[in-house]
Write a structure and sequence with these properties.
Elements (H helix, E strand, L loop, with lengths): L2 H15 L9 H15 L6 H10 L14 H12 L4 H13 L14 H12 L3 H14 L17 H6 L4 H7 L11 H25 L4
Helix pairs in contact: 1-3, 2-3, 2-6, 3-5, 3-6, 4-5, 6-10
């Protein structure tokens, strides 16, 4: 099977699988991350097939929507790739990307490293910042019925993986606990350049948000 063929089949599989997904983790999120990896990979020496498959399958079963179970996504991805007769080395690399891409509070050491993981991780993180990142944060906050903001609840910058996973803090706190930290966690030059502009946009949004919250018309 040609590389283009397997990518197209994977797109159809993911679209069907995520048909009823939450708005910030749906097919359109995958599509945006896919576009980001293509842009980043153009400037990197990498296995483009692994990068594209990693981007398409990285959120096939986000643990947030499966009671925190981090094994479901890799399992679904492996079953699909095996059914398409993909070689074991490629499958393992894609699985490692899925297992290690998540932020998890930012305090967890990656168990695996590769240029391909760096590219997919940067691409995914770019979709968590800027205008889209703001929209996704509040969409998920609404999905979980979290308050927009509570001045009496300070952000927690030292959460464990479990605390991060179970946090019910206001959505604005998420900017300080994750979104504003991502710019400095980018590893590719393309990712760093795009992140800089999106980071500035979020800072402007927060300034406007606080001004409106405090009635500074």
């Amino acid at each position: 099977m040609s590389n283009e063929n397997i990518i197209n089949k994977t797109i159809l599989f993911v679209k069907a699988k995520l048909e009823n997904a939450e708005g910030g983790h749906d097919w359109f999120h995958i599509e945006r991350v896919f576009k980001n990896v293509v842009a980043i990979a153009d400037n990197e020496v990498c296995d483009v097939t692994v990068v594209k498959l990693g981007a398409l399958l990285h959120d096939i079963a986000d643990s947030k929507f499966h009671n925190g179970d981090e094994t479901i996504g890799p399992k679904i991805a492996r079953e699909f790739l095996e059914s398409e007769k993909i070689d074991e080395e490629t499958i393992q690399h894609v699985i490692h990307i899925i297992e290690n891409i998540s932020f998890k509070g930012g305090n967890v050491q990656k168990q695996f490293s590769s240029k391909e993981l760096d590219i997919v991780q940067d691409a995914d993180r770019l979709d968590a910042i800027g205008a889209i990142g703001i929209a996704r944060a509040f969409n998920y906050g609404g999905f979980k019925n979290r308050p927009l903001y509570n001045p009496q609840i300070a952000p927690n910058l030292h959460m464990s993986k479990e605390e991060y996973k179970n946090s019910e803090a206001p959505t604005i706190n998420h900017f300080y606990e994750k979104l504003l930290l991502l710019k400095d966690k980018m590893t590719t030059e393309t990712g760093k350049q795009i992140a800089k502009e999106r980071h500035q946009y979020m800072e402007g949004f927060l300034s406007q948000f606080y001004a409106e919250w405090d009635g500074e018309n």
